[in-house]
Amino acid sequence: MNILQINSSARSTGSESTRLADEIVARLAAGTDVTIVRRDLAAQPHPVLDEAALQALFTPADQRTAAQAARVALDDALIAQAQAADVIVIGAPMYNFGITVQLKSWFDAIARAGVTFRYTAAGPEGLLKGKKVIVAVTRGGLHKGGPTDTQLPHLRTFLSFVGLDDVQFVFSEGHGMGPDAVARARAEAQQQIAALA
């Protein structure tokens, strides 16, 4: 089994979402022959999708400059990791009611028409099929199931768009609400991890 772990916190150390993602990967890897690839998007930031990147992506491969080819190759590497994974574990903290810029850059990199999704007469079809995704969602407040949880619909919509429909979420909320809330959140997350298939 190949596990791809995506850590999308802005912090490489001390991140609750990364700690939780580490625990999920350890649970999945226990007693199993696995290969684990970890990508820390804070330590290895991926460039944002800007005008130069768009020009590179929309230039035919045989007409790209060396700089354009190098930029596209950065996205190609992330796509290849996602394609090779059987399980993708994403550490996804909530920042200002949404996903981090680090995770958005990863999403932008792996969303490639004709490679990870395609448009058909019946509508878009995701091509990253047959994979399990587990998302470790951490928040400072309590948002699950409420109107302020704009993060979860974004995650579900994007993952489904590229064919990742088998998604489970592990929640750990209330980390900004004091030590007792943090202890509760971690205990509840442990129960969710123990219940993972």
Automatic annotation (TrEMBL):
The keyword Flavoprotein applies. Pfam families: Flavodoxin_2. Transmembrane segments: none annotated. Residues 1-195 form the Flavodoxin-like fold domain. Binds 1 FMN per subunit. Coiled coil: none annotated. Its EC number is 1.6.5.-, 1.7.1.17. Its cofactor is FMN. SUPFAM superfamilies: Flavoproteins. Keywords: Flavoprotein, FMN, NAD, Oxidoreductase. It is an enzyme of class 1 (oxidoreductase). It catalyses: N,N-dimethyl-1,4-phenylenediamine + anthranilate + 2 NAD(+) = 2-(4-dimethylaminophenyl)diazenylbenzoate + 2 NADH + 2 H(+); 2 a quinone + NADH + H(+) = 2 a 1,4-benzosemiquinone + NAD(+). FMN binds at residues 9, 15-17, 94-97, 138-141. InterPro entries: Flavodoxin_fold, Flavoprotein-like_sf, FMN-dep_NADH:Q_OxRdtase_AzoR1, NADH:quinone_OxRdtase_FMN_depd. Belongs to the azoreductase type 1 family. Homodimer. Also exhibits azoreductase activity. Catalyzes the reductive cleavage of the azo bond in aromatic azo compounds to the corresponding amines. Quinone reductase that provides resistance to thiol-specific stress caused by electrophilic quinones. This is FMN dependent NADH:quinone oxidoreductase.
